[in-house]
């Protein structure tokens, strides 16, 4: 069964793109960032330490993939905590195991994250690496917060995007990088619709 791997940095637009691609082909979709966020939230909610690998692994192993909801996992502190526990190899192993099991679902799957094409599903049917400049990604994230009625400061959002990139690209285990055979899609100058059409034509050609 086909597996579509979509990777890229924070706020590159891969979430929206992945959901629409999954819908188009009738495939199951897993936003793997939510698995790291849900693990982090469970630790925060339980008052548990973020730097104890054994504790974090236990939480990761007991994660239920069916109830993941970005709306309850979107808080800034959760994203920060997620990227901290995501540097722990044993936490990654536990979550990757669950992600690989998900990738086997019929009739096909779309997984998005940072290491899908390189580590989770190296044999994916098609791999996309979705990027945009840090300035454009910060602007999109800022607009989204304002549109949802929140308050934000562009410089702080930009700094946040930059720090997250640094941590995701710089970690030793499964750093964010395009797989060798990934199709690069830079959405800096594209509307969501244009990015969707570009992704669709790449996927269509591969299926
Ligand atoms: O995608 P999102 O920003 O929600 O992911 C939160 C954090 O989880 C990321 O900053 C990254 O550190 C981590 N992550 C990861 N591998 C993935 C997906 C997310 O390390 N496949």
From TrEMBL:
<protein>
    <recommendedName>
        <fullName>Cytidylate kinase</fullName>
        <ecNumber>2.7.4.25</ecNumber>
    </recommendedName>
</protein>
<dbReference type="GO" id="GO:0016301">
    <property type="term" value="F:kinase activity"/>
</dbReference>
<dbReference type="InterPro" id="IPR011994">
    <property type="entry name" value="Cytidylate_kinase_dom"/>
</dbReference>
<keyword id="KW-0547">Nucleotide-binding</keyword>
<feature type="binding site">
    <location>
        <begin position="8"/>
        <end position="16"/>
    </location>
    <ligand>
        <name>ATP</name>
    </ligand>
</feature>
<keyword id="KW-0067">ATP-binding</keyword>
<dbReference type="InterPro" id="IPR003136">
    <property type="entry name" value="Cytidylate_kin"/>
</dbReference>
<keyword id="KW-0808">Transferase</keyword>
<comment type="similarity">
    <text>Belongs to the cytidylate kinase family. Type 1 subfamily.</text>
</comment>
<keyword id="KW-0418">Kinase</keyword>
<dbReference type="Pfam" id="PF02224">
    <property type="entry name" value="Cytidylate_kin"/>
</dbReference>
<dbReference type="InterPro" id="IPR027417">
    <property type="entry name" value="P-loop_NTPase"/>
</dbReference>
<keyword id="KW-0963">Cytoplasm</keyword>
<feature type="domain" description="Cytidylate kinase">
    <location>
        <begin position="4"/>
        <end position="193"/>
    </location>
</feature>
């Amino acid at each position: 069964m086909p597996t579509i791997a979509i990777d890229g940095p924070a706020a590159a637009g891969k979430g929206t793109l992945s959901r629409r691609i999954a819908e188009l082909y009738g495939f199951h979709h897993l936003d793997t960032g939510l698995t790291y966020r849900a693990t982090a939230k469970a630790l925060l909610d339980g008052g548990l330490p973020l730097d104890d690998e054994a504790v974090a692994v236990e939480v990761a192993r007991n994660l239920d993939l069916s109830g993941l909801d970005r709306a309850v996992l979107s808080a800034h502190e959760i994203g920060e905590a997620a990227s901290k526990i995501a540097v722990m190899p044993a936490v990654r192993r536990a979550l990757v195991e669950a992600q690989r099991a998900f990738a086997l679902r019929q009739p096909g799957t779309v997984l998005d994250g940072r290491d899908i094409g390189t580590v989770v599903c190296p044999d994916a049917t098609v791999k996309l690496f979705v990027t945009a400049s840090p300035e454009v990604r910060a602007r999109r994230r800022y607009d989204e917060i304002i549109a949802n009625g929140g308050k934000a400061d562009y410089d702080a959002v930009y700094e946040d995007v930059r720090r997250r990139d640094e941590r995701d690209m710089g970690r030793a285990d499964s750093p964010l990088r395009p797989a060798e055979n990934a199709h690069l899609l830079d959405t800096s100058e594209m509307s969501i619709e244009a990015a969707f059409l570009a992704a669709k034509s790449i996927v269509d050609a591969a299926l």
